[in-house]
Amino acid sequence: MNAPPSLVCRELRLRQFRNFAELDLLFPRPGAAVIGPNGSGKTNLIEALYYLEIFRSFRGAADDQLVRFEGEAFHIRGRFEDPATGREVEVTAAYEKRRRKKVVTVDGAEPERLGDALGRIGVVVFSPSDVAIVAGAPGERRRFLDIVLSLNARGYLGALQRYRHTLRQRNALLRAGAPAAQIDAWTASLVDSGAVIMAERARWVAEHRAAFASRYERIGGEVAARLDYRPSVSGTESPESDFAGALQAELDRLAGRERERGLTLAGPHRDDLGFLRGGEEEGRDLRDFGSGGQQRTAAVSLRLVEAETIRAARGRAPLILLDDIFAELDPGRSRRLLELLEEEPGQAILTAPKASDLEVRHGALPRWRIASGQIVAAA
Ligand SMILES: Nc1ncnc2c1ncn2[C@@H]1O[C@H](COP(=O)(O)OP(=O)(O)O)[C@@H](O)[C@H]1O
Ligand SMILES: [Mg+2]
User: Largest Cα–Cα distance of the chain, in whole Å?
Assistant: First the structure.
């Protein structure tokens, strides 16, 4: 699909963010390759850039941890340009530790709700920790779905916020042994919001299953793998399911056990995704039986599918951040991933410990050196 190119980051300013005391960078339109040893701040730089997309750490770190040791507050400012029109957007985020106060601006104005500022840029980050989406606990996979769908599916974020609030209330009542009428009062809202979440997840998986399989096949150089939605309520795998009816029926069925356990036992907070091998090992779960390389291939394929989701939902290519991912892949997989990335028309900003890992954009990206939170253009 031909989408206009990504927004490009032209300027990034960091103050007291992680190991960056003061950093002022001007980026070239194609992007940059940032090379430096372990602990120099490569992932911190990627984390800062992606913070301007979701206003939290992609590594799941608390905001407090992002403030430089001994510092009081961090500031991030990014200036992004639409290369087609020259139009610019400025996104900033600041967080003050003592008051635990976060302020976000888009073009100088504070949005009414943080949610209104999410996903302004359109970014995908590829990181070695992505393998946890495939190999880790179900919570990792739900977090992936929640981020992708909050940014790209209308109504998802609102439903998710409502669902989480309702789930907390309902669980508290169940724990306290409240009368059934009080619990039922929350069940309706749980079912409403839960059904929206389940429907969007089922739809997303159905729409992207083929793309996932073909990316996996191409990068892995082996038979395709399969992506499945595994809802906690059986019979709601397909996007045509009666999600609300099925969730309500399951909660009715589990009512007795919920009172015993003091916990809501069905709903999207217990959903999962499945990654299944094809070919001779058809149906075996990559989480349990995949090699490290196969799991990483599935994780990278998922990120490529996320890039496609952004293109479809927002009508432009994403900016691509690659955090030290080629060290993890064998040479064949790296080469085939590179070929796929050459088809991504956007800006690419990548990090690596050594220059030999950098063949992205045919090795043509300007090279910068990073050491102890300082970045300079390489000679
Ligand atoms: N809040 C912080 N303040 C100062 N330094 C930090 C903070 N958080 C992490 N660091 C430092 O950042 C470095 C790790 O940076 P990172 O970007 O993960 O390295 P890499 O280049 O290997 O990706 C470590 O030296 C760590 O001490
Ligand atoms: Mg790193």
Answer: 72
Residues 254 and 167 in one domain: yes
Tell me the two tokens of residue 371.
């050491």
Residue having the nearest C-alpha atom to atom 14 of ligand 1: 39
Has residue 306 been placed in a domain? no
pLDDT digits (tens, 9 = 90+) for 123-168: 999 999 999 999 999 999 999 999 999 999 999 999 999 999 999 9
Closest residue by Cα to atom 15, ligand 1, is 41
The CATH number of the domain where 261 resides is what? 1.20.1050.90
* Strand ranges for 282-338 from DSSP E: 319-323
- Expressed in angstroms and rounded, the spacing between residue 45 Cα and the centre of ligand 1 is 10
Strand 374-377 relative to strand 101-106, pairing: unpaired
Ligand 1 atom at shortest distance from the alpha carbon of 324:
23
Residue 189: give the domain boundaries. Answer: 137-296
Domain total in the chain: 2
Instruction: Report the separation in Å between the CA atom of 128 and the middle of ligand 2, taken as the mean of its atom positions.
Output: 8
